[in-house]
Design a protein that fits this description.
alpha/beta, about 40% helix, globular
Length: about 230
């Protein structure tokens, strides 16, 4: 998550949807005395790396900031792609760990998730464990409140990220920023990552179609057009 008071924008960061590339691209244009790049801690309990819009709105209210005066944006991605990327990223990190993380170490929960994913969890089990309890899609979780009110100003799409991000930059008075690939999952292909479509069972397809209905219907995402 980024809060830029100098440029009046908020970036809501959905994991595995180009967010690290955006943060990296924007850093040099932020004012260190005014702007906030939130990773795992921040100046409000509602602020963290993957803060949802509703959490951000509550944080703004508690800090006396006016959400409506900021351009807020996020990037949405085909859920079939995102879940597959999420699993293989954590599995790749976990396979690089020589032993389980020590309790109390920095980012213990995250490293434990990677370790467990690499050692014992299939893709289908991973999706059931981490997403099976969701009752709303990514766009609803990150861009709307519980009553269905849209809180986010602009929704960019991963498949046309360069074009959409260029328009965001223009709106907030930034020059055109060329995005670099940061924290990408492509490097795990060498570890035997199967083709995306091959990893989806009928049961898993049904899970994605049930939970992420709004993403699929709104943006025309399917398993067939996932990359």
């Amino acid at each position: 998550m980024i809060v830029s008071h100098s440029r009046r924008f908020v970036f809501i960061h959905i994991g595995k949807a180009g967010g690290d590339s955006i943060v990296y691209g924007l850093r040099r244009y932020l004012n260190p005395s005014k702007d906030v790049v939130v990773q795992n801690i921040g100046l409000n309990p509602n602020f963290h790396k993957h803060t949802r819009s509703l959490e951000a709105v509550v944080g703004f209210q508690e800090l006396g900031w006016n959400w409506n005066k900021y351009l807020s944006f996020m990037v949405i991605r085909n859920p079939f792609e995102l879940l597959h990327s999420d699993y293989w990223y954590h599995r790749y990190i976990g396979e690089g760990l020589k032993e389980p993380p020590k309790l109390g170490c920095e980012n213990y929960d995250w490293f434990l998730k990677c370790w467990d994913t690499a050692k014992s969890v299939s893709f289908e089990e991973y999706c059931q464990l981490w997403y099976g309890h969701w009752d709303r899609s990514f766009v609803e979780q990150y861009g709307y409140d519980r009553l269905g009110k849209r809180l986010i100003s602009r929704i960019c799409r991963m498949e046309r990220l360069d074009e959409d991000f260029k328009q965001v930059c223009s709106q907030v008075g930034l020059p055109e920023i060329k995005l670099e690939r940061v924290n990408a999952t492509q490097h795990v292909n060498a570890k035997g990552r199967p083709p995306l479509q091959a990893d989806y069972t009928p049961k898993l397809i049904a899970l994605v179609e049930r939970i992420f209905t709004k993403d699929l219907d709104t943006f025309g995402y399917t398993l067939e057009n996932a990359r």
